[in-house]
Amino acid sequence: ASPDVAVVQDILNNPSQYYFNLHSTLNPGGFTRGQLSRVQ
Fold first, then answer.
1. Is the per-residue pLDDT at 40 higher than 90?
2. pTM of this prediction?
3. Judging by beta carbons within 10 Å of its beta carbon (0-12, 13-18, 19+), is residue 20 exposed, middle or buried?
């Protein structure tokens, strides 16, 4: 499946409104989470 272009554009324009959350077999509820931010 390919990502929705509008969502990708919104992430690029407003990264602080999104976060990533990594899961693993040992930590199915989430291993780590991080807020996205723009890097200059």
1. no
2. 0.68
3. exposed
